[in-house]
Design a protein that fits this description.
Distance between the termini: 37 Å
Largest sheet: 6 strands, antiparallel
Structural class: mainly beta
Oligomer: single chain
Shape: elongated
Mean pLDDT: 91
Number of helices: 3
Helix content: under 10%
Length: 309
């Protein structure tokens, strides 16, 4: 008896009627093995409003330790287009033509759920290779065979919202130094550094030379900005650890602020309203503003990303 991937019993039958949804004819079948083609996917075909493929393993699905069998599966061709949470339930029949009797061997299992994380169902032991290669059985004649499929979508649904948090092992940080010249002549509310990359995201440092909010007029305000908000889809959050330093250009006693924050489409910036007082910043002995130049460094490390399922 042939078996499904999870060893459920299947229905095995014979019919004179060919499959209505898709057929694949393979000529010179033996050359698949000669050319080390362990897996063959057909072009996609439509059934029940979705696109599917037939997947054949001429010498068995090695990932499931199948030997001495032909493995055949039905796969959802483009599960990514379904969107988060979609599932498609279908009953399917897979066919093999008996060229001697002009009839079809049909294998059918129970209803299966196809989704992003399980897009392929079928039969690990569709037919023993000894049976298949024996010409008297009619399945492989003159090195040619024909497989087919019918698919019947029984239901579809979208599950509730969900998310996936992917923590990044051995995450590395990226540093960016911003040289700000003629500081005393800055007359805009805020200035942004050039963009730089960290954790495959684009960032900027934003400086308010006269402060902002409750730091206005008394402190410098500094923020880290997610510079490419258009790439942050709904449900995406970026777990980020970052340090912002202003260099002490005289004695190397830099001042720094370090924080861990979640960035998202609704939270594109994080930082300090009162990063450093104007009095200390402009004091010559602090070394933070030397010859009307200051140096600001951002050290950014992305440790994890949450995305919608």
């Amino acid at each position: 008896m042939a078996s499904l991937g999870d060893h459920d019993e299947i229905i095995k039958s014979v019919s004179d009627a060919p499959p209505t949804h898709y057929m694949v004819k393979i000529e010179s079948f033996s050359l698949l093995t000669k050319h080390a083609i362990e897996r063959y996917e057909t072009e996609s075909f439509e059934a029940g409003g979705y696109k599917w493929k037939l997947v054949l393993y001429p010498n068995g699905n090695k990932s499931k330790n199948m030997k001495e069998h032909v493995s055949v599966y039905l796969a959802l061709a483009d599960s990514t287009s379904l969107g988060p949470g979609w599932e498609v339930s279908a009953v399917f029949r897979l066919y093999l033509l008996d060229q001697n009797k002009d009839s079809y061997l049909i294998l059918q299992g129970k209803e299966r759920r196809f989704h992003t994380f399980k897009r392929e169902w079928g039969f690990d032991k569709f037919i023993p290779t000894a049976t298949f290669f024996n010409a008297s059985n009619g399945y492989l004649m003159e090195d040619t065979c024909m497989f087919g499929a019918d698919v019947f979508v029984s239901k579809e649904r979208r599950s509730g919202r969900g998310e996936c948090l992917s923590m990044i092992k051995d995450a590395t940080s990226s540093k960016h130094i911003w040289k700000i010249e003629n500081f005393s002549k800055l007359d805009k509310e805020s200035y942004d550094s050039n963009a730089f990359f960290a954790g495959d995201r684009k960032w900027k440092i934003r400086l308010y030379p006269s402060g902002t909010n409750h730091g206005t007029g008394t402190h410098l305000s500094i923020y880290l900005i997610l510079a490419d908000p258009e790439t942050v889809s709904d449900g995406t959050k970026i777990f980020t650890e970052f340090t912002v330093r202003i260099y002490d250009q005289l004695q190397g006693r830099h001042i720094a602020g370090k924080v861990t924050k979640w960035f998202s489409g609704s939270s594109l910036e994080n930082g300090w309203v009162k990063y450093v007082s104007m009095v200390y910043f402009t004091q010559p002995s602090s070394g933070l503003l030397l010859k009307d130049v200051c140096l600001v460094e951002a050290d950014v490390c992305v440790h994890g990303i949450t995305s919608a399922l």
